[in-house]
Structures are given as C-alpha cells and as structure tokens.
Write a structure and sequence with these properties.
There is one protein chain. With 543 residues, the protein is an alpha+beta fold. Among the domains are: 227 residues, FAD/NAD(P)-binding domain (3-Layer(bba) Sandwich); 91 residues, Glutaredoxin. It has 15 helices and 25 strands. The strands form five sheets. Strands 1, 2, 8, 9, 10, 11, 17 and 18 form an eight-stranded mixed sheet that branches. Strands 6-5-13-14-15-12-16-19 form an eight-stranded mixed sheet, with helices on both faces. Strands 23-22-24-25 form a four-stranded mixed sheet, with helices on one face. The longest helix is centred in the C-terminal third of the chain and has 27 residues. The radius of gyration is 24 Å and the shape is globular.
Length: 543
Amino acid sequence: MPPTDYQKLKFPPTHHPDQDAVTPVRRPVVVVGAGPVGLALAVDLAQQGQPVVLLDNDNTLSTGSRAICFAKRTLEIFDRLGCGDRMVDKGVSWNVGKVFFKSEEVYRFDLLPEPGHERPAFINLQQYYVEGFLAERAAQLPLVDIRWNHTVTGLEQQADLARLTIQTPDGPYQLEADYVAACDGAGSAMRKLAGLESKGRSFRDRFLIADIKLTAEHSGLELKAERWFWFDPDFHRNQSVLLHMQPDGVWRIDFQLGWDADPAEEKKPENIIPRVKALLADSTMKDAQFELEWASVYTFSCLRMAKFRHGRVLFAGDSAHGVSPFGARGANSGVQDAENLAWKLAAVLQGKAPDALLDSYGTEREYAADENIRNSTRATDFITPKSEISRLFRDATLVLSKKHPFARVLVNSGRLSVPATLHDSPLNTADTDSFSGKMVPGAAAADAPLADAGWLLRACSRTGFTALVFGDAAAASAVAQADAALHVVHIPLTTANTLAAQRYDAQPGTVVLLRPDQHVCARWRAPSAAAIRGACQRALAKN
C-alpha cells in the first residue's frame, strides 16, 4: 500500500442523526477545530472516558510545512495519547542548533546535552503528518465523533449550556453542549461569534517560507539535522534566514524579507528559486537540484485574549494566543493547552471535580501564554532590530559570542519552547520539606530511565493522578491509605535508578504527586495519608 498523502487526503462529509433532531441534542463537550490542538484535545478526552464531538469547517488536513518543530514535552504528550512513536519515527530528531553571523559560525548549542531522556529535544515534522497521525488515532476511539464540513455559524450561551448553530452541506442544525472548546486557530470564528478579541503587538516585517525537496543524490550533502540560523548572510544581506531538515527530503527555509516586500511577488517561483540557489551555493551545494514544494509569506503578532474561559466556552491554541514563529512556541503551547484542559473537563463532566477546576485552566494557561509571548517578543526584537542602535548592539553581541560565553546568553535566534512551570497555580500544594532541583510544584515532570519499568513517564497513568514513591514501604502504605485509585510507580533507590532520584531530589520515603497532565502538584519527604489526600483534593479544586 502506498504511503498516505496527507496533504491530499479528504474525509467524507458527515451527516449525523443530531442534524435531524426536532430539538437540539445536548452533548457533554464539543471541540471546534480539527487542527493539532483540537485533535489532541479530542483524543485526550476520549482516553479519559469522555465522549466528545469534534467539528471542523473543512474536510482536509493542512498543506505545507506550517508548524514543524515539536518539542520534547509535546512528544511526551503524544506518547500519552498513543501516537508518539509514529511522530518520532517519521520526524527528524535534533538537539543541536548553530548560529551564523555573515559567513561565520559564532555559536552553537545543544538543547539536550545530558543522557537519560527517551525523547529528543525536538523533532521536525510537517504539520499535516501531525494532524494525520492524530486523526487516525482519533478514528480508533469510539468516543470521538468527528464531523467534517460542519461550520459553526452561531453561538449562544446560557448559565448551564452553550448552543451552537452549525452549517453543513445538508443545511443548518443546532447542537447544545455543557462545554465548548474553541480550537479553531488564529482567525477563530468562535472568538468573533463570542464578541471577543485578542490584543497585543504586531511586527512590521515579512518572512517567506519555502519548502524545497532536494533530489536524492544531493539530499545528504553538507546539510545536517540541525537548526541553522543566519544573521546577515552573504547570500541574503541585511536579513536573516532559518533552515530546518524535514522528513521525505524536504527542507524548510524561512527568509526574512522586510516590511516593504510584496507578498504576491515574493511567492512567485521565479523570485523564490534564486534565493534558494544562493543559499545552497553558500553551502557548497551550488549544483544541487531541488523542487519547490510549497511557499507562503507571513507576518506575525504576539497577542492573546484577556481571558481563556468565557462561561461555557474555553479557548485553546492559536484561538486564545499567538506568537511569532521563532522558538516553536505556537503548536507546542497549543498542545499543552489541550492537555491541561482535557483532564479538567473530564473530571468536571464525570462529577469528580467542581466547575471551579476549569477556572484554573484559564489562570494556568494565561500565565504560560504570557511567558511564551515575552520570550517570543524578545527573540523577534533581536532578530529584526527596528533601529540602528539595536542593530549595532545585536551585531556586536554576535561578534563577541564567538569567543566569549557571557555574550552567548544574549544571542536570541528564538529561545526554544520549554513547558511553563506553573509556580502560582492554586492546584499546587506548597512544599513543607526542603528540596532542590527543578521538580517544584507546578513543573512538568522530568523523564528518566527506570530499571524495571522502562521510562518513568511511560510508567505513569495516562488518565489519572500518579504517585512516584521512592524507596521505603512506609511511603507506599501512606499512598495506599490516602486514595486506592492513585496510580503508584515504585522507584527503588538503586544505582540503575540514579537519574530518576537525582532529577526528583529523592531520598528514601520521598513521594511526588503528579496530576493527569504530568505536572508536579505536591511532594514530600515522608507524607501522611492525610497530606496526600489533601493534595489530591486541592489539585481538583475541592479546597
């Protein structure tokens, strides 16, 4: 069987019995938008036993590379959703980035310099593969009801429900939902229907994306599975260029164009091809043959909605916040939104938590969005200086970075996506014992190899709370007395488990409590059953 061409894949339009109902049918949760965020949310809800309706205004996946850099934390989420192996097997894994100023390499970095991680720092994988793999995973789950060519055209909220008007090829119908998740992208129709807007800063610059496919005899020359970023290269003077390897012999090139560039002209092949040839010639590949697969010109903004929760409607991904593409923060933060929201929706709908738990989705992910926007704005200001003084500072920093470590921390070609540590989350239980290291309450759990269980994160629950119990039996007994439903991972303090112990600063009796989205919510040196029970209640917004 030939491989699936996800860019040409079309799903049959859906006619559902809900369309023929005399009065609107009520569903527990409706997700709007079948991009990476909406699909990840639907899969996550279904895995937690929650039926979900997923509406999309189209019946195709994305075309062109679009979001391509998927971070280690996102890959760990995909593992939990049951499709991480497919993503990593198809994607191009990389940890190393290089920064060039004019024709010189001035700085390189390794995003995963230490051993003991199952997943790479990043993979490059075209967005249509990510959507395709998630859609196929969703199709395996009976609780996911995907309705293609179902466009939301109306939104009405009441105290206990949201009512959607939906246009289909067979005509309109209405659907009611306890909750609606708006995952319909930067131009969110749901945001407009709710009378809401995103605010922030727009950048007066344009970039060209060119996806090129090198012929087989040239695909291995000189270029590597690394992130290469040029400032003011000889082949594209006074601008910047970013290069990534993708699967299938496809390379993604981002050329800075400047604000005055004409998007229609710049997208013409006769204008793109000379730029690509100049880059390849600079890489001693002047004779390389290539095909232009896809091109787009984009501008960007850093912005977000004031609040991500509005009654029964919750916004996630680009519909809630937007960043520049430098740092790979868009899709990664969107998938992390989905993971944060999924377990909370499931807990509330299944009567395990009060509605107030959903308020924490807003506070936590608004905090994460602010962190992403702050980093994205700083990167964009460094890459695209708006004054001569800013450019002089940037260029001096790049020159100094070749020999001086202090300057390297100032180089910003896009500080790459890492998960936010939710320091002030109301779901955290504050430390009462002394700990060191990064696994503070609110942090995303760190992976590590385990002697008897493969990888730590693989050993955790896919859908519920997990207690990591290090060492002695007394701690395990306290966990069992606290909540028999807690998933327990026993980690003996042996040489084989040294990395796990180091990353969690574990001693005999240490217990670390993880939420269903694998964020630390509490930790103790020797907890009582009451302390564990109280932390679980707090993490469910019950106290």
